[in-house]
Amino acid sequence: MKFWKMQGLGNDYVVIDNRSGGISESEVGPLSRRICERRFSIGADGLLLVYRSTVADVKMRVLNADGSEAEMCGNGVRCFVKYCYDSGIVNKEKLKVETLAGVKDAWLEIEGSQVARVKVDMGAPVWDRSKIPMQGQGRCIDEELKLDRARFRVTCLSVGNPHCVIFTSDVSNFPLQEVGPKVEGHKLFPNRVNVEFAQVLSRSELRVRVWERGCGETLACGTGACASVAAGVALGKVDRKAAVHLLGGDLEVEYSESIFMTGPAEKVYEGQLF
Description:
- This protein has two domains: 2-121 and 263-272, Roll (Diaminopimelate Epimerase, Chain A, domain 1), CATH 3.10.310; 129-257, Diaminopimelate Epimerase, Chain A, domain 1 (Roll), CATH 3.10.310.10.
- The protein is 17% helix and 45% strand.
- The model has no long low-confidence stretch (mean pLDDT 96).
- It has four helices and 18 strands.
- The radius of gyration is 18 Å and the shape is globular.
- With 274 residues, the chain is α+β, with helices and mostly antiparallel strands.
């Protein structure tokens, strides 16, 4: 079984072409847990699987390191698109990718004969609690969340997957390892939630750290960057076009009716599983 190890801003993935169906449905979750385990295997934040699609050019499935399946992954989709183009599965500079969060349009920036950067239409953010999903009715914008004795102001939305954004004045020293898992597993979120801790640097810049559902803290999260900008716009903190500085690097996010995310994707190496 051949694979590529890839990364987008330090968010790393194992990518496997499963168009032949060689990996059965019952094997998908256990395989992700096994090969994503660091030090004992390849090690990654997630597994990306390529499938044939009847509604798009190609279909992407995203498995977290714990074996759970994610609806969408912003850094992952850029790596996935690069894999499909560079390996010859598709030969288009604009393509459609089927995901559990719907069909996404992607535009490729080619340098030489390979993909250097990818712009993705992530779709319109979803604010309704029932569709995030989140308990309660209406929207959750700048509402209080109680965690033990602490209180946080949160803004929640879906960008194909659920996010909870918390703005703070000093993200570098925020106790993310303590707060992140408590928010992820909070009873308000039936499918758990990704958590972003965001600091406003200017009207056009955010610094963000991410606690990813099923992974823990990661160096970057594309959907998390998009959610942070959308939440910042909703709260009047940032403009609709902003740079998001993550631990692994920067993403460009533009929020109009849809959210457009642009960033790099890199191949680290190729390998074969036995």
